[in-house]
Amino acid sequence: MLIDTFHRVHDYLRISLTDNCNLRCSYCMPEEDYDFTPASRLMQVAELEAIARVFVAKGIKKIRLTGGEPLVRKDVGEIIQRLSALDVELTMTTNATRIHEFVDVMWEAGVRKINVSLDTLNADTFLFLTKRDLFDRVKTNIDLLLAKGFVVKVNVVVMRGVNDKEVLDFVRWTLTETLDVRFIEFMPFEGNRWDQEKVVTWQEMLDMVRNEWGDEVVPIARKPHETVKQYRLSGGKGTFAVISTMSAPFCGDCNRLRLTADGKMKNCLFSKGETDLLGALRLGEDIGLLIDQNVQAKAMALGGQFGVGLSSVDAGTIVNRSMITIGG
After folding, report:
1. Could you give the C-alpha distances from 283 to 33, 48, 302, in angstroms and in order?
2. Which residue has the higher pLDDT, 140 or 22?
3. pLDDT at 310 over 80
4. Average pLDDT of the segment spanning 26-52
C-alpha cells in the first residue's frame, strides 16, 4: 500500500498520455504555439503499461487517463486495451472532440465513466475560450455518451468575467440530464495568468444557485476522498458540485497520485518535486522504491506551496508546470 507520512492511503492514479491538445484554453496552455514534448520522451505503450503495473501491485485501484487531450494520441486505443486488462477501474478525462471515434473502444474495454471538460454552453464563448469552433461536436458527443450509458461528469473551470454568468445555465442542465456538472475554482499554473480576482469561490457559486432555487438545493453527503462539495436540485435528474481547491481545500484524505506524459511522478497537483520513473525504467532501476519515496515526500496540503484562502496565494512564487504538462 502507498501510505504517506500523514497516514493517507493512495489508490488512485491519474496518467497523462500526452501534453498535446487540439484546443487552446488559456488557463491550461500558456501559448497558441506551444512546444509539445517529442514522442521519444513520452512513455511508450509498453513502458506506460509496465509503470502502471507497478502502481497496481502497490495498491492502485483506479486509473484515470488524461492529457492534454488523451484521444489525440495515435496509439490511445492500444493503451486503453492494455490498461483495461489490469485489475483497476479505468476512466478518462477528455474534451470530447473525438469521443465519437473511440466510444466503442472504450465501452468494450470496460470504461464506464467519462469526465468531459466544457467551460461554456455558448458556441461563441467556446470559440473565444478554446480558439476552435467545435462546440456543436462536443455537445453532440456528450449526448452520445449519455445515450450509450456512460456516467458523465462535465468539468467547468469558472472564471469571473468570462463564464461565471453561466453557472445557473449549467445547473439548469442537471434538471433534465443524468449528468454531474462540476464547477472548478480557477487555479494558478505556469503561464495561465492567474489572478485571484478571477476566482469565483465555492460559496459565491452556491449563493448564486440558492438565490435562484432556494430550498430546492439539496446537499449530498461527501464520500471519503471526494474532491467535491455536491448538490442536486429537487426533482433533477443530475447533480452539480464545486471543486473548491482555492477557497476550501480537501487535502485531508487525498488518495491521488499523478504521472505526467513524460513519465514523471507527482504526489500532488501543486508539488514542486517530481520523480523520473520513465528514466529509471529505461535504465533498469527499481521504480517501486522511487514510487514509495515520492509518496513519503508528499506535503500535508497543496504541495506545501500555499495555505488556505486566496490571500495566501502568490502566483509568482509557485514552482510548477503548466496545467497541460501535468495532466488534467
Report:
1. 33, 15, 32
2. 140
3. no
4. 81
The Cα-based distances of 45 to 40, 71, 273, 323 in angstroms read 12, 14, 25, 23
Rounded Cα–Cα distance for residues 45 and 91 (Å)? 17
> What are the domain boundaries of the chain?
2-326
Task: Place 244 in a pLDDT band, splitting at 50, 70 and 90.
Answer: confident
One-letter amino acid at 272 equals: K
Residue 255 · residue 59 · CB < 8 Å:
no
Alpha-carbon span 74 to 76, nearest angstrom: 6
pLDDT, the chain, mean: 90
Bridge partner residues of 185 (DSSP): 158
Task: Find the mean pLDDT for residues 234-244.
Answer: 95
Q: Which of 258, 218, 279 is nearest to 63 (CA)?
A: 258
- Of 178, 131, 122, the closest CA to residue 154 belongs to 178
Nearest to 206 by CA among 232, 179, 225: 232
Report the alpha-carbon distance of residue 149 to residue 178 in Å, rounded.
10
Nearest to 234 by CA among 217, 212, 247, 210: 217
CATH 1.10.287.3510 holds for 2-326: no
- Say which residues have a Cβ less than 8 Å from residue 107's Cβ, sequence separation at least 6: 148, 150
% of the chain with per-residue pLDDT over 70: 88
Give me the pLDDT at residue 307, please: 64
DSSP state letters, 15-45: EE--S--SS--TTT-S-SS--PPPGGGSPPH
pLDDT confidence band for 192 (50 / 70 / 90): low
Cβ–Cβ < 8 Å for 173, 189: no
Q: Per 3-state DSSP, what percentage of the chain is helix, strand, and coil (rounded to 5)? A: 35, 20, 45
The cell 501535468 sits on which residue? 326
User: Taking Cα atoms as reference points, which of 258, 260, 253, 264 lies closest to residue 301?
Assistant: 253
Within 10 angstroms of residue 98's Cβ, the number of other Cβ atoms is 19
